[in-house]
Predict the 3D structure of the following.
Amino acid sequence: MPSLTRSLLLSLSRNPRAARFAYRHGDRLGVKQFIAGDTLDECVAAVRRLNEKGFHANTTLLGEAVQSPQEAEEVKKAYTDILHRLSEEGLRCNVALKLSHLGLGLGEDVAFGHMEELLQLAEELSRREGAVPPPAGHFIRMDMEESFHVDATLSIYRRLRAKGRDNVGIVLQAYLHRSLQDLEDLLPLRPNFRIVKGAYMEPPSVAYHDKKIIDQKYLELVQRALSAGCYVAVATHDDRLIEKVKAWTEREGISRDRFEFQMLYGIRPALQEEVLSQGYKVLVATPFGKDWYPYLMRRLAERPANVALVWRSWIGGG
Ligand SMILES: Cc1cc2nc3c(=O)[nH]c(=O)nc-3n(C[C@H](O)[C@H](O)[C@H](O)COP(=O)(O)OP(=O)(O)OC[C@H]3O[C@@H](n4cnc5c(N)ncnc54)[C@H](O)[C@@H]3O)c2cc1C
């Protein structure tokens, strides 16, 4: 991908004027192809449709980097409602969230406290009769954000596990130089990993920029985690990597209940269907909410052709 376009789109993702413009014209920008809707009701309907087809799902209330303790508290309350609702509906749907949305920027303890409460609630709900067991339900994965959040995110993960919270998952980004070492350091905890390439703008001092190297590191992370006995969510739309993971797990005799493929709502749906039809577990990440702008910009940065899609929605007045 032309890295200039990627950098431009990622810097625009932090631009308040561009955000205000986008929120005014969201429908015309075609944002609905990438998110399940504005409300939890819309999200539940989308997840139900996915479950009926055989997909697993997760959901995220869109938003990040809250500025005050009250906002962080409100986000925690929203996730409390989400956990209750997913549980009542009996959906095969877990939660993925950003710690910066739970107040990480206000201090590690703020996000840790909220995470601990949410995991406690998920655990209580999972003990109800007929509850969907973790990790398909009643499980919370902490997304990985910009590299300056990685130490605190890993620290929160370790603290949660030290307190016996096991229904929590972590993410490692293949583009970061540090990730293979982070993986080795975490292995004694046997984490439930999600491996991604990495979605943020990072300097060459911390991240690889060459696609070939990132793909190679991606595969190394997946293979090392699986070889060490961890459960792995292989989160990518890269069909070549998906084929490599399928072939390697087959060769190594790693059973399909040790890993899953994850893709994002609205992205490469034909590939999602194909992998599912081959008998693999496929989870579709299904975010919802009104604060969709940074999420949309990261999806555009991943594939410049998406800018053309948005442009066509715009001129078509859709
Ligand atoms: C379930 C899930 C969770 C994620 N969680 C995180 C996270 O916690 N932290 C983080 O930093 N990143 C996260 N990401 C994003 C990830 O880091 C990548 O930015 C993103 O997945 C694009 O990389 P790729 O692996 O699909 O491969 P790429 O090499 O970028 O793409 C492979 C092919 O997939 C298609 N494709 C990729 N992206 C798009 C798109 N947006 N629209 C249309 N087609 C596309 C293109 O055809 C491309 O040729 C997540 C991704 C997924 C799928």
Notes: Residues 1-34+294-318 form one domain.
